[in-house]
Amino acid sequence: MPLSSAVLIKRYAGRRLYHTGNGVYLTLDDLALMVEDDLGFAVREAETGEEITPLILKQIIRKRALHG
Question: What CA–CA distance (Å, rounded) separates 26 from 32?
């Protein structure tokens, strides 16, 4: 999915994930459901704008592997 059509998620201090379209905070589990539903998203550091989507996806995979 092109980045322009993906939902923008910003990560703030304390690892808080903010859905800019809905104006709500999310958890890794919420993002995992978005992956399962094939909803595109991009995660960026709020302060720097750095693209961190691969890091977040790795965290989701790691969490799922540990907790089933």
Answer: 10
Give the separation between CA 66 and CA 5, rounded to whole angstroms: 31
pTM of the model: 0.86
The total number of structural domains in the chain stands at 1
- What's the rounded Cα separation, in Å, for the pair 31 and 24? 12
What is the distance between the alpha carbons of residues 9 and 15, in angstroms, rounded to a whole number?
12
Question: Mean pLDDT, to the nearest integer, of 28-51?
Answer: 95
Structure tokens, 5:
């059509």
Q: Which domain holds residue 42?
A: 3-67
